[in-house]
Design the sequence.
């Protein structure tokens, strides 16, 4: 069994959860915040059988869209100077960031 953690954009979450649920995946949705943009995103966690991992990732890949976002709030990340002037930066966010981990044990008690 694998443990999948997928960080997706809030806008894509409902559609992806619906599709995953239709295909029989048991998903938990968590509200999360990106460290760079400090904006809300969604983290899905899911325990899946090994032979279902690619199906899960395929759904996420199909439904997650890349979007451009403008940020100026975290320009400190981009500067080492104390006297920097904040300026807007365009970043491309997602598709999705997906981690797949081995599960040592899984119990429902
Ligand atoms: P954020 O950390 O808010 O990052 C949003 C987007 O900003 C990133 O999109 C990337 O395009 C850009 N970005 C992030 N750090 C940057 C930096 N130091 N300099 C310039 N641009 C930077 P994605 O790569 O698609 O990531 C979307 C969200 O996925 C991230 O939100 C974070 O919540 C999560 N994430 C991405 N990689 C991760 C990782 N290795 N570990 C944990 N979470 C990750």
Sequence:
């Amino acid at each position: 069994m694998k443990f999948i953690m997928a960080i997706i954009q809030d806008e894509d979450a409902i559609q992806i959860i619906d599709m995953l649920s239709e295909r029989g995946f048991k998903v938990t949705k968590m509200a999360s915040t990106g460290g760079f943009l400090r904006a809300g995103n969604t983290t899905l966690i899911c325990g899946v059988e090994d032979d279902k991992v690619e199906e899960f990732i395929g759904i996420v890949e199909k439904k997650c869209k890349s979007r451009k976002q403008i940020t100026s709030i975290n320009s400190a990340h981009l500067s080492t100077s104390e006297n920097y002037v904040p300026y807007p930066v365009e970043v491309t966010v997602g598709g999705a960031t997906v981690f797949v981990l081995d599960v040592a044990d899984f119990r429902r008690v």
User: Anything to note?
Assistant: The first helix runs from residue 10 to 22. The mean pLDDT is 89. The helical segments are 10-22, 53-63.
